[in-house]
Amino acid sequence: MRPSRPTAAPPAGTTAATTKAAVAVTTVAAATTAVAATTAVAATTAVAVTRAARAAARAARAVARAVARAAVRAAVRAAVRAVSTVSTVSTGRTVACTPVAVPWP
Question: Which of 35, 73, 76, 97 could form a disulfide with 84 if both were Cys (CB 3.0 to 4.6 A apart)?
Fold first, then answer.
């Protein structure tokens, strides 16, 4: 086995420069990680907000459909009552009126 060769000492100031460079690289890496984490949180928040907005829009459409159906049913009932009243007035006797079945989509 050969004896190991003595290594030359690094030039003066090299260790300090290397340490500064390592600190700079570590700082940049930490900043990059923080930016990536912030971006991920922002993206996740945006997705959650979008989903909530879509759910609210679906709920609003469902309520609007229910209100429209109730209005149509009320109008049909009123029309049936009006026909029944006209029949009663014109004939002078009570007419048995069967409500009309209206198909709903």
Answer: 97
Taking the model in full, what pTM does it have? Answer: 0.45
61-77 core/surface letters (b: 16 or more CB in 10 A; e: else): eeeeeeeeeeeeeeeee
Angle at 39 between CA 33 and CA 43, to 5 degrees: 145
Question: Under 8 Å CB-to-CB from 3, ≥6 apart: which residues?
Answer: none
CB atoms within 10 A of CB 80: 15
Q: Which uninterrupted H or E stretch holds 41?
A: helix 14-91
Residue 18 has a pLDDT of 74
